[in-house]
Each structure stands twice: as C-alpha cells, then as structure tokens.
Amino acid sequence: MGNIQIIIPMIAYLTLMLYIAYRSNKVAIQTEGKGFLQEYFIGGRSMGGFVLAMTLIATYTSASSFIGGPGVAYKLGLGWVLLAMIQVPTAFITLGVLGKKFAIISRKIEAVTVTEYLRARYKSDAVVILSSIAILIFFSAAMIAQFVGGARLFQTVTGYPYIVGLIIFGITVIIYTAVGGFRAVALTDAIQGIVMVFATIFLFFAVIKTGGGLENIMDSLYQINPAALTPDSGGAIAKPFILSFWILVGFAVLGLPQTTIRCMGFKDSKSLHNAMIIGTIVVGFLMLGMHLIGVLGSVIVPNIEVGDLAVPTITLKVLHPVLAGIFIAGPLAAIMSTVDSMLILSAATIIKDLYINYGGKDISSKRISKLSFYTTAVLGIIVFLLSIKPPELLVWINLFAFGGLEAAFLWPTLLGLYWKRGNATGALLSMATGIAAYFYFTIQKVKWLGMHQIVPTVLISLLAFIIGSYIGKKNDEDTIKLFFG
Amino acid sequence: MNNKQKNKILNKEACITIGLYAFFFIWWYAFAYGLGYQEPSKYSYVLGFPSWFFYSCILGYIVICVLLFVVVKKFFVEVDFDEE
Q: Which residues lie across from B49 on neighbouring strands?
C-alpha cells in the first residue's frame, strides 16, 4: 500500500501550480488580438531576472540531474561530481552569448519560437520545416522519457502504482501549461527551481547527519573504495570522455531550443545581468549538492544495484516521510519544468511556424487563441497517453534527443547571430549532416579518440555550415541590415 | 545608441562570456588533474573533501560566481532592446 504522508505535500504543491495557471490565464485572455501570441507563447517578454534565471535552469535540469546523474555518482564517486560541475556555466554562457541579441531580434520580428528566428535569418522554407520537425520529434521523445522517469520515481517512493503518479503530475503539467501558457510555465518553473534548491539542502544535510559528519563519511569511502575519491574514478572516467562533456553539457547547450527560447522572454538588460549571476549560483548548487548526495549516500546505503534507485532509496532512508514527500517534489519539479517548456514550445512551433506561416495569414485572432489552448492540451494528452506504455521507437529516439537537438541547432543559431556570411545553404547542410552524423556515430558506437559522439558531430556540422555558406548565395541586404546593421 | 554601437557592445559581451567560460575550464582542469592524479592515500583534505575536489569543484564554483558578479556589474552595459 502506498504512503499517504508522502503524497500530501506533493498534492499541496501541485495545487499551487494550478492556481498560478489560473492567474496567468486571466492575463492571457485579457490580451486581445495580435498580442495574444506574444503573451501566450512568450509571456509578453516580461520576465525579470529571478524568474528568467529559474526558468532557464529548471528547464535545463531534468530527471537526469536529480536521479540519473547522482545514480552514476553513487557508483563512481567524486569523479562524476567533477563531470557534473561542467554544467555550472550553462546559464551564463546561454544568456551572455545569445541573450541580448535574441532580445533585440525577437522584438523586431515579433518572434516567439527559435524557428521564427531561423526563418527571418535564413529565409528558407526547408530550414523552417526541418527545424520544426526536429523540435517536434525530439521534444516528444524527451517529454515521454521525462514522464516515464517521474512516474517510476513516484512508484518507487510512494508505493502507489505507476499510472497513479503519471496521472497526478502528468495531468497537472498539461493543465497548467495549456491554461496558463508561457507565463505559467515560467512562474511555475521559478517555484519548481526553489523547490529543487530546498530539496537538495534537506537531503544533503540529512545524509551528512546520518553518516556522522563529512570527514567520517569520506574516511569510510576511502576504506570501501579509494577509487571513488579520485577524479578519474580509478580509470573508469577517461580524460577524453569527461572532456567531451565540455561540449555536450557545456558549449553545445547554446543549441538547445528549449533553453535558448528563454532569451526571447525577458524584460530588460538588468533582468539578463541578474539572471546570469543567479542562474549560475543555483545551477552550480544543484549539481554539486545532488551529485555529492549520490557519492556520500553510497556509504550510508551501500549495495543498491540499479543506479536510478540510489537517490529515492537514500531519501527514504534518511528523511522523515513528510520531508521525503517534499524532497521527491524536487525531481518531480525538475521533470515538470522540463516538460512544460518543451510542451509550450512544441505548441508554438505548430501554431506559429507551421499553421499560421503556411496555413493562412487571415485567421481571426479569436480562433488563434482557441487553437493555441487546444494544441497545447492535445499535444500534452498525446504525450501523456504514449507515456502509459512508451513505444520502443520513441524510447530509442530519446537517446538522441539531447545531442540531436544540439547537432541540429547549435551552428545555425550561433553563427546566424555572429557570422554575416552564414546563409540558408550552410544552415540546412549543418542541420542535416549534424543529425545524420550524430545518429550514425551513436548507433555505430564510434568513439573517436575516446570522446563522446557529440564532439565529432559538432565539428562535422560546423564544417558543413562553413562549406554550405561559401557555396550558397550571399544574404540579401535586408537580412544583413536586420541582423548586423 | 545606434544599432552599430549596440552590436559592438553585444559582440564584446559575448567575448567576455566566452573568456569566463575558458577561465572556469582551466581552473576546473588544473586543480582536478594537477592535484588529483596520485594515490588516494597521499591526498590532503580541505574541509573534509580531498583537496583536488575542494579546489576544483567547490572553490572553483564560488570563484566563478564572484567573478561573474564583478564582471557583469562592471563591464556589462544596459542596452535598450527596442528600436529608436
């Protein structure tokens, strides 16, 4: 039978999410006419520094930062914490490199999606369609994976069946995203970010206390497994492998549409500056805290076979059920805040990049607002239904989702802003070869010089972008003026 | 501020950001592998952590946050996002 004490804090918390959606919805329906899309899909570009920082890092941190990563750290030790810390600059590099450029451009062209920026920059239908398809497919697979992870976690911790967890938080996410739009997504992300921080603090100190102090735990760890104290985990984490994470979860994060879209939604320069600082502090704290919990937990609760079960098992061991309920809200928050951002951007892609762009320019604004709500809801429900018994194909595609999005979007996004010569031919070639190369290298398990597949992928797609840009037509005057003038 | 000036500022800030990124990488790498590549029995400890881990991951995190604060407050310019 399930544990009711764990569920209560969780329900309270989910109710709060729904209340935020209700409030955001009021703002959205008051925004009549043309402003609706700007409100529903990007929150009227009104985010302040704190909300911007939190929504950026909450979107970025997913099930893997709370469950998967710490699970590996449990097995391998401090070397995996070292790897996780590569993600500290994620927030400031995204905002510092793309933030102000995106803010200016998106206001000029009224963009609410990354694809719209690509359309304005490259003026190519092929780029628009390819990027829309990439977003929809990779996002769907990733959302399902997050839902599955969340429901499994719920099952492990509360003892209630898989489907109960899926319904409780799955439906909550779908409702608050569909009803409240981007504003609700950003605000709930901010709260979810705070929940993640507190969850990490609670669990961290509980682990230290249970283990009789940090020095005591480190000493035991040295007795049990001295390799867990080394940066390479006694050879298990080779240097070329860990260094390639500076691309995978470092520099190439500049390509992820779900985080880069946030650069279109903030209010002013000051918000951006503050978000760079706050975001870095918070993301570093979460990564350090959660992964250390994995390492220290291996002393307190040894012999957990499945890495993914490490954090839930440690939690139940060291925390009182009510606190455990609050803690479990942490990873669920990480999951929901990733899914909501992908859901709203998928809906924006369908409505703005495909439907309005190709379907018809004369759709009444009332119809658009109705369609936007429905598209988000229907998309959410499809993802929900597929998560009940995930199709193998989508589970498989999810293996490529994170790197695949980077492979597709990194250079077209980045060089579109910083290289005048970059054009449609380059962007198209870069996206196609990037995705193809990433799939090929991953399936064939190509380990070039011992590095992760993303490294050769990113090099090849860069080369493709440069070659394509020199072969293709020069950009017209208007584009140059809009982006570089 | 015209568009040319704005773009110049934006390019400069992007370079500063990449510079900070490179700095954090070097710090992370130098301490982790400079101090960590030896027998665990020879490790010294700072606040309960092996020293390589303390300097690379904990102090490195604090240093980048402080540096970022100073750099952003000092060098980043408030740019108006709307057209004149």
A: B46
Partner A contacted by B67 (CB < 8 A): no
- Identify the segments of chain A with pLDDT beneath 70: 1-2, 32-34
Is residue B13 domain-resident? Answer: no
Domain that holds residue A250: 4-392
pLDDT number for residue A127: 97
Number of structural domains found in chain B: 1
Determine the structural domain holding residue B68 and report its residue range.
27-36+44-77
pLDDT digits (tens, 9 = 90+) for B15-37: 999 999 999 999 999 999 999 99
CB contact under 8 A, B21 and A93: yes
- Tell me, yes or no, whether B32 lies in a domain: yes
- The residues, any chain, with a CB within 8 Å of residue B58's CB and separated by 6 or more, are A288, B47, B49
Residue A264 has a pLDDT of: 97
pTM of the model: 0.95
Report yes or no on B18 lying in a domain: no
Local mean pLDDT, 10-residue blocks, chain B (84 residues): 90 98 98 95 95 98 98 96 78
Of the candidates A226, A273, A485, the beta carbon closest to that of B40 is on A226
The pLDDT tens digits for A309-325 are 999 999 989 988 878 87
Tell me if B28 and A280 make a contact (CB, 8 A cut-off): no
The count of domains in chain A is: 1
For A347-369, the pLDDT digits (tens) are 999 999 999 999 877 788 888 88
User: Does residue A368 sit within a domain?
Assistant: yes
Position A387 scores a pLDDT of: 96
- B81:A100 CB<8 A: yes
- Residues in contact with A448: Cβ distance below 8 Å, sequence separation at least 6, in sequence order: A441, A455, A456
Under a CB-based contact definition with an 8 Å cutoff, are residues A136 and A382 in contact? no
Residue B16 at interface with chain A, using a CB cutoff of 8 Å: yes
Nearest to B50 among A103, A229, A273 (CB): A229
**Per-residue pLDDT, A7:** 80
| Segment B26-33 long-range contacts (CB within 8 Å, at least 24 positions apart) | B27/B56, B27/B60, B27/B63, B27/B64, B28/A82, B28/A85, B28/A86, B28/B56, B28/B57, B28/B60, B30/B56, B31/B55, B31/B56, B31/B59, B31/B60, B32/A82, B32/A231, B32/B56, B32/B57, B33/A231, B33/A239
Q: Which of A45, A81, A83, A88 to mutate to test the interface with B (most CBs of B within 10 A)?
A: A88
A window 83-122, beta carbon within 8 A of B: 85-86, 88-89, 92-93, 96-97, 100-101, 103-104, 107-108
Among B6, B32, B47, beta carbon nearest to A82: B32
Instruction: Give the CATH number for residue A297.
Output: 1.20.1730.10
Note which residues in 404-443 of chain A have CB less than 8 A from chain B.
418
- Chain A nearest-CA distance from B3, in A, is 6
Q: What does the pLDDT read at residue A1?
A: 45
